[in-house]
Amino acid sequence: DSVYSWLLAAITLTDLLIVPGLVLPDGAEEFVAGTWDFLSTYHFPNARDHPDHYKYEPIESESWTVTHSAYLPTGYGRHMQTVEDGPWLFHYIRENFFYALEYGLLDHISEFVDLLRQYGCTEENDYQLRIGTKFVLSLYIKSNRSWINQHGEDDDSDSEDETDYDKIHKPWTAISAVIPRQFVPIVPGTYGYAFQEAMRKYGKKSTQRKG
Description:
- There is one protein chain.
- By secondary structure, the chain is mainly alpha-helical.
- Helix content is 56%, strand content 0%.
- Helix 2 (28-41) crosses helix 9 and helix 6 (106-118) packs parallel to helix 8.
């Protein structure tokens, strides 16, 4: 949808901001900051808002926008996520984690687990991450040690109908969910620095990271 498209465009623009010698049109940084500010006020429904939880397609669809929102400040996970970046995002992940686990779709729960790692959580210090990691690995075992061929119980799709992206997305998200993190420091010239500069110049004060 439009919000998801804006989000992906903002991530791409932030990446372009750090390309040496590349001059972007006026408004690029303002678009990046405006997208994050918009996401911070956008109403994302929680799974508990419908009796079918994530099996209700509109709620499931919105949840993908939430999980992908984390890629804007972190550059697809290059930098550590902080609660301060967007408390709304952290609260959504925490509140809806067990509903995602109940839903059981590999890509879906993997993105929740991935985001917990982005906050610095590990199997040793976080219960949700620990059981989420075990669940993702259990799906690997149940599908004959494959994430590519994994299908949820409610997934009626034929493997022949899957796009190449669908097949790649499953192991991509699952691997991101189970591997430890080594974050890139935010210094001048990095993606994270470009994002923070855009927020400093054009973001609302309530959505800017302190320090």
